[in-house]
Structure formats: structure tokens, C-alpha cells
């Protein structure tokens, strides 16, 4: 059995507590590796290494040298593209066709974009008058925040972990990463890339294990200076409480129940293509996914029929098969959760347009965590499957009659991460986008990303923004120096 290792102070180690965690291929249910869970001792070793590395050559390195290393990390990921692809798809079951275009290229791009951004950051200086006429020079300098705890999710493991590690390193911090115990493979590979790229020991560390043990030891470690997390809202709330001890900064990207609004004047072809992707990509396990869709009444029936046809045309199968466009859910536990929502929808009297169960799969995949892509109609806005984040390949579609009504219904949620609006009326597009309570609103598109822009959620979908210079603000401490002349 492949034994995964923690990466601490530039070395791989299998030390851990007594808990041996199996790593499962969700497409088959077979074990592919195992982890010795990192306990308090391993977390302490990783945080100590990260703290010491701040005082070493990394702490005094010129920005251009850091930038060069970040470029070498990106190149290192690209040089081992196939290894990363295989590892990510084995861990998550996602199709190669998806990870090849999104997860792995973004893993590399997340280092390049922040290397480019940090090169162009200026520090500001003011010459200020003083009552005695001598004046003063008032300037602001930046320095890294310190040791950053990075806690990543299992849905886009490499993409979302590097989305935090890239800017943290660009700003000169050191990091301790805890990836999900369900998807540790690409995190481990990244340690190898860091060594090959010449990153000084202790700057990047990984500890593998569960949230309640490894994650808890990490967020409550007194030498962690800031915590960045992507995952569920309840875990985010728990991390906020941990961060309060020692008054540490946090960046949280949390849950969502994202609305899609389809007006009768949309380009139907594009709206169907984009909405299908937003509901089913990555088997619905994307925090930006659309789980509640509102369609203007005159096109409601046609839209539902075309969504049904699109969902039924999706191919579930071996991740390696280029024809596959839908993988399994991440785990048995998560499938039980998603299936319980399917049951609740049926009990609540939903019209099941398609799906609603567990599909028949070929023998080799029968142990995997497959579910049918599912569409419901006919439920009120307060039905559980219309209010709660499911994180599966499913959506509910309801009709609406006017713009104000649909904006109010879209905003009637404790979440506010993403939204999508489909209309060919440019004035309406701007008007509606401005009123939707979400950190990001796509018009006639979905998951179209420019990494320089602010990304994050309103309401219970998170705190802070990531992307471009917004990330750098989180990972930087500002100091103002005023020199009287
Ligand atoms: O594209 C990104 O930068 C991003 N943070 C995506 C998040 C997806 C959540 O599942």
C-alpha cells in the first residue's frame, strides 16, 4: 500500500499518531494509499519549521528571487503534468477531460499570477507638512504576515490549495498546508516540486490528517499568524472561533446556494450549455455551482426539457475515458448525504424531471460513489433542497414572472457566493447583476475567471476576497513609518 508522507522542513516523514487513514479512489471504492495522521507533535514540528524559515534566507530574500522560485514551482507542476493529472483524478474520481483543462493548469497558474502581481506592488510615500515647517516623510512598508495555515477542500484540491499557497509565498510568508484527508495525493507531489524548485526548507510544509485532529492542532497552534480556509460554513465558523484566540486574521471561502436566473430574452443555446455546466461540472461539487434556477415563465417548459435532455446525455464512467464528463461523488459519506437530499425532494413532492437515484455502473465501477444527475421542479422556495447546499449533481428549477420578484427570491438565502444571469438585454444584465447579493455574478457565462479580480462570498459564504492584489492584502502586514525631517 502506498504510504503518503508529511512534508516538514523540506523532508518527507511518515510520523503520525495511531490513526491510519485509507485514501480511496471514489470511482471504484478501492484503497489507493494510506496516511498516518499528523497529530499535535507533527503539526508542531511543521509550524516550528515554518516559523524558523521566516528568520532564514527566505525572510531576507529579494522579491525577484522569490518570483524566480514561484516560476520554477509553476514550471515544476507543468513538467510533471501527467503525474498531477493521474493523482488528482485517482483521489477525486473526476474525469481527466476536466482536470486536464482546469485543475492542473490552474495549479501552475496560481504561482505565476501571484509572482507577476507581487512584482508590480508599490509602497506609498507621502511628504507631509508639519507646524514647524520642517515637514515629514510618511511611508508604508510591507512585510509578510508570518506562518499561514492553509486548509483546503477535497473538490478542487490542487487548484484551491495553490490559490492560497501561491500568494502566501509571493508575499514572503511560510505555510503549513492541511489538505483534505480524502485528497492528499497532489499535496504530496507538490512537496516534491518545492524541493526541486529550490524552495528553502520549512517555507512550505504539509500535514496530512482529519479536520478534528490535524486541522484542530493547526488552527489552535499559537505560532500560526493567520488562517485561510475553503470549505463548509460550519467549519468556517469553528475556525473563526479558534482564530479569535490570539486575534489571528482569517480568510474564509465557504458554502453557497447559488441562483441562476434565466430571462426569456436569453440566448437559449448558451443558457442551457452554461447552466448544465454550472449544475453538473465536477459532479456538482463546486462551491460556485448553480443549485437553484429561476426561469421566466414563457420559456420555462422548453428550458426544463432541454436541461433534462442535457443531463441525460452526460456520460458517467472511467475518469481516464475521454468520453466521460461526469465522475462520482467524493466518498460514501458524501453520497449518503446527497442521496438523503434526493429522498427529501421526493418526500416533499418534487417533480423528478430526471435522475433521483444511484445509477447502474459497469462492474469495475460498482464500488464507487456514483449518483444520477438530477433535476427537480415544483417545489416551493422554502423546500430543503431549494434552501440548503447539497454539493451534488442536482438542481431545482422554478418559474418566475417578473424581475423584482426573481431578484428578491434569489437574494432570499443566508448565502451569497455566486450567481449567473442569462439575458441578451444589456441594461437588464447590469441592473440585475448590481442587485444580486453575491460576491461574484456571471452574466451569460459561468466560472469564467480572471485571477486578478476579487473572488469571495457575501453573507455566510465567507470573509475576505482572494485574487490579484486582494490576496496580497491578506498575506501582508502593513507598517507605517513617519520620519520628521
Ligand atoms: O476559481 C477560483 O479561484 C476559485 N476559488 C474557485 C472555487 C471553487 C469552489 O469550489
Kindly, what is the distance between the CA atoms of the first and last residues, rounded to a whole number of angstroms?
A: 68 Å
CATH class of the largest domain: Alpha Beta
What is the overall silhouette?
globular
Secondary-structure content class: alpha/beta
Total domains, how many?
A: 2
The small molecules bound here are: (2E,4E)-2-amino-6-oxohexa-2,4-dienoic acid
By DSSP (H or I, 4+ residues per run), the number of helices equals 16
- Order of neighbouring strands in the sheet with most strands: 15-16-17-14-13-19-20
The CATH superfamily of the largest domain bears the name: Aldehyde Dehydrogenase, Chain A, domain 1
What do the pLDDT scores average to?
A: 98
Helix content: 25-40%
* CATH topology-level name of the largest domain: Aldehyde Dehydrogenase, Chain A, domain 1
Largest sheet: 7 strands, mixed
CATH architecture type of the largest domain = 3-Layer(aba) Sandwich
Amino acid at each position: 500500500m502506498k504510504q503518503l508522507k508529511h512534508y516538514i522542513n523540506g523532508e518527507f516523514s511518515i510520523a503520525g499518531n495511531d490513526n491510519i487513514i485509507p485514501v480511496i479512489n471514489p470511482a471504484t471504492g478501492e484503497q489507493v494509499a494510506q496516511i498516518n495522521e499528523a497529530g499535535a507533535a507533527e503539526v508542531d514540528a511543521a509550524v516550528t519549521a515554518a516559523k524558523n524559515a521566516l528568520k532564514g534566507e527566505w525572510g531576507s530574500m529579494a522579491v525577484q528571487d522569490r518570483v524566480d522560485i514561484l516560476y520554477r514551482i509553476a514550471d515544476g507542476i507543468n513538467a510533471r503534468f501527467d503525474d498531477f493529472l493521474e493523482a488528482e483524478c485517482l483521489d477525486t474520481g473526476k474525469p481527466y477531460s476536466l482536470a486536464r483543462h482546469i485543475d492542473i493548469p490552474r495549479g501552475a497558474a496560481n504561482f505565476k499570477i501571484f509572482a507577476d502581481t507581487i512584482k508590480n506592488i508599490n509602497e506609498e510615500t507621502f511628504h507631509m507638512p508639519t507646524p514647524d515647517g520642517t515637514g515629514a516623510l510618511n511611508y508604508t512598508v510591507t512585510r509578510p504576515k508570518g506562518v499561514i495555515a492553509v486548509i483546503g477542500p477535497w473538490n478542487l484540491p490542487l487548484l484551491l490549495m495553490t490559490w492560497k499557497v501561491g500568494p502566501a509565498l509571493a508575499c514572503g510568508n511560510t505555510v503549513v498546508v492541511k489538505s483534505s484527508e480524502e485528497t492528499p495525493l497532489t499535496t504530496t507531489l507538490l512537496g516534491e516540486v518545492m524541493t526541486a524548485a529550490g524552495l528553502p526548507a520549512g517555507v512550505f510544509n504539509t500535514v496530512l490528517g482529519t479536520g478534528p485532529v490535524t486541522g484542530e492542532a493547526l488552527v489552535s497552534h499559537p505560532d500560526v499568524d493567520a488562517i485561510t480556509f475553503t470549505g463548509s460554513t460550519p467549519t468556517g465558523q469553528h475556525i473563526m472561533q479558534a482564530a479569535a484566540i490570539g486575534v489571528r486574521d482569517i480568510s474564509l471561502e465557504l458554502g453557497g446556494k447559488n441562483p441562476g436566473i434565466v430571462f426569456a430574452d436569453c440566448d437559449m443555446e448558451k443558457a442551457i450549455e452554461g447552466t448544465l455546466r454550472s449544475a453538473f461540472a465536477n459532479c456538482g461539487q463546486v462551491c460556485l455551482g448553480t443549485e437553484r434556477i429561476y426561469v421566466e415563465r414563457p420559456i420555462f417548459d422548453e428550458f426544463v426539457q432541454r436541461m433534462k435532455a442535457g443531463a441525460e446525455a452526460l456520460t458517467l464512467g472511467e475518469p481516464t475515458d475521454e468520453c466521460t464528463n461526469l465522475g462520482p461523488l467524493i466518498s460514501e459519506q458524501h453520497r449518503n448525504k446527497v442521496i438523503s437530499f434526493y429522498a427529501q425532494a421526493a418526500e416533499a413532492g418534487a417533480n423528478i424531471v430526471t435522475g433521483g437515484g444511484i445509477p447502474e455502473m459497469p462492474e469495475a465501477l460498482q464500488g464507487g460513489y456514483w449518483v444520477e444527475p438530477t433535476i427537480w421542479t415544483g417545489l416551493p422556495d422554502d423546500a430543503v433542497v431549494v434552501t440548503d447546499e447539497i454539493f451534488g449533481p442536482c438542481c431545482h428549477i422554478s418559474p418566475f414572472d417578473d424581475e423584482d420578484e426573481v431578484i428578491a427570491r434569489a437574494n432570499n438565502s443566508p448565502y451569497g457566493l455566486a450567481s449567473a444571469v442569462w439575458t441578451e438585454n444589456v441594461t437588464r444584465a447590469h441592473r440585475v447583476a448590481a442587485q444580486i447579493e453575491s460576491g461574484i455574478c456571471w452574466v451569460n457565462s459561468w466560472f469564467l475567471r480572471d485571477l486578478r479580480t476579487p473572488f469571495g462570498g457575501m453573507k455566510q459564504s465567507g470573509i475576505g476576497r482572494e485574487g490579484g492584489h486582494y490576496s496580497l492584502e491578506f498575506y501582508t502586514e502593513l507598517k507605517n513609518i513617519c520620519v520628521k525631517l
